[in-house]
Amino acid sequence: MPEKMDPAAVLQTGQESCQRVQRTAKRDKDAATGAVITGEIAGAKDAINLLCPEQKPILAAAEKGFPEGPRTSPAAGTYRALTQAPNCTWEAKGKDGSILASGPETPPKAGDKITAAIPAGTAEFNSTGCYAWLPA
After folding, report:
1. Considering only CA atoms, which of 41, 43, 64, 45 is closest in space to residue 53?
2. CB-CB contact of 30 with 80 (8 Å)
3. Which of 2, 24, 38, 46 has the fewest CB atoms within 10 Å around its CB?
């Protein structure tokens, strides 16, 4: 518990986080997972572990993902974006700054899933407009 913080306020904040995760997951599990990954639902990890353990599958999925933006030394593999936004782009670079892979190859159409294949040896993976990523 943070110093000089009202325990009731901390509990209320945790309960609100649980409610947001639960409501969002009821409609769209990927959206709930993405909100936990990006920190959009503040304190979700502690709230789930302490107040709403039935949401641990969302937390477990979120712990395997990462938010958009630069990421150094990502694990090689195929990932899927948690958005279908047409402005989602990504790029994998080697240690020398050369582009190893990028995408999507063609602009996504409505309903298309956006995936990124991160090759072994990628030093930096960067994405914009993609929200968050999970292993595919």
Report:
1. 45
2. no
3. 2
